[in-house]
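Hey L., structure's done. Input below.
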Amino acid sequence: MSGHDQREPEAELTLLDATMIGMGAMIGAGIFVLTGLAAEISGPAALLVFVLNGVVTAFTGLSYAELASAIPKSGGGYAFVREIFDDFGSFIMGWMLWFAYMIAGALYALGFAPNFLELLHVYGVVAPPDQVGAVVIPLLGIGVPAKFVLAFVAVAGLVALNAASTAASGSAETVFTIIKVSILVVFVAFGFFSAGGGETSFTFQNFDPLFPEESGAFSILPAMGLTFIAFEGYDLITTVTEEVENPRENIPKAIFLSLGATVLVYLLVVTVAIGTLGAEELAAAGEAGIAAAATSFMPTGVPLIQNGGALIVFGAVFSTITALNAVVIASSRVAFSMGREGQLLPSIGRIHYRFGTPFVAVLLSAVVMLGSVVLPTQSAGNMSSLFFLLSFIVVNVAVIRLRRKRPNMNRPYEIPYYPIPPILGIALNGVLAVVLIWFLVRTDLLALLLSVGWLAAGGVMYVALNRYRARGTDDDPTAGAPTVDEPAEE
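Output:
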């Protein structure tokens, strides 16, 4: 194969860009819509829910950091497993991750649509979101719900950006993430400054008692399961490893910085929301809990902002769009890595000669992402969560296997107190996965059947691709033989 086809990704992303990819994915719509729901289950202890989920997530984060420093390849968890496990095992890992990221992208796109409509409604541009009619497609005369049109436009716009330039998509992620974090910082500042004044002011008395009387401390467990998805995202950083400057050092740093900053932001936001509105009122507001808290204590009539609720809706728009951009980046890099390794069609694993991006992988991931929009939202979310939990278990197993198989391998970063963190990561993610499967059996068989169906489709694809490669080798006796540029290994 010519050097033209062998072009490799260029390291155009800085430590800040990599960190913002992780934060952009984690600080998505979750903090805006899940806080009120967590307070409904665990009361003021919702604060502990986010603390404990941060601890659980950190164990797997340590494994990702060590593997990324030892195996500086794009593709995230798939690239690590490909290095350690057999061919079929690594294919299934990549197949799961690819789908999980694409499904998450569909969910973020659908989350962006109603928030964007609500923002337009706040400024009097459109009617309330539930009253916005369908959009008629020219020539076809078919009416399509506005949320699907907006979801399509959001995905298409970000796909175009990612297909054209890695640096541009990384810079956009950085700018959008800084904007939404700034909005949350403003929310936190106004919340703490409200102490002692106004009809609604911050008070630590809203945290006493900490646990609901009827369920006690055990109430935090179901709330942890509900909000765990809000901490998924740091793993996306490892999908662009080869596009980050000095990846052996910067990838682990970006993982820890994004996790630490995200946990801090979550704790401050939840503290202010409960401290000002109280757990009962926050729970009553449900998915609009943070917006309700902001409206209760933030000033009104401010130019451009209108009120606190409008500011939070503005933040939710940026949160969903940055999370969507992050998974467009991640899903395409997993597909690119699989194509480069020969586990998907070769064209998927090539860098575009002009744009320097995994062009085909980006477009293919977008097609599946847009097709996934038709799935029921809850089922798609459950499938994504299940595949992420399973992949996290495999990554923790991978770091243990790599230590045993290659003890002398160069590891710029090593997990402290090894092997305790990866073992805890396996156990805790395993418990959550079992609980989720039990939940799906009882309440969402569609998600479980679709998950099994996707894995079965992966098995069929694996066999078909192996036969395709074997036929290519039979037709060309020189296929697979070392070239001048690729000497045979000793």
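The radius of gyration is 23 Å. The first strand starts at residue 135 and ends at 137.

-- N.
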